[in-house]
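Support request, please re-run this one:
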Amino acid sequence: MEALQTKLTKAEANLAKALDMIEEGKKSKPQQELRINPPNLFSGKRLEFPGFVDNFKIYLKVNQDSYDNDSKKISYVLSFFDKGEAALWKTSFVQDKTNSRGEIELGSWEAFLQRLEDDFREVDEKGEALYQLQCLQQQNKTAEELALKFKILAHQAKLLKPPNAETDPTDPGNMLLQAYFKAAL
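Re-run finished. Output below.
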């Protein structure tokens, strides 16, 4: 009986040790990135900037265990700056952040976001959206694509009323939207 008790005690100790090892393995195992659509490549076009920022913020939030420090976040975002003005901006940024020993010190996430905002935010987003509305043409877009693009630009131009607001067909803003939409067809 005593031998059986000793074997049982050893088995319990081994089981507890194995469970501890499994738990430690779970803790040390790196979190795998969730495979959601990453942001599109960014060319530096100012009207695309707000959507680009929204997309990478969502991606980084969902994968916060993988991008758990400022350098990882900044490097991830910079990897999408591969063409046009954005590629030139990235080169300049990296040169600015390279010290005399050739090491890259990317700085803080907050400072990086502020620099992006300062350099890529449309100076006159409302005016640019209004201009884009004036130039909008259906061409090979479906009616749904045209309507969505029109709605986005009208929102950026601050011409849309809240969904629950009453609309007055004689309101100059509504008349302007109607004229732009008809011209786009």
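Residues 2-28 form the longest helix (27 residues). The mean pLDDT is 85.
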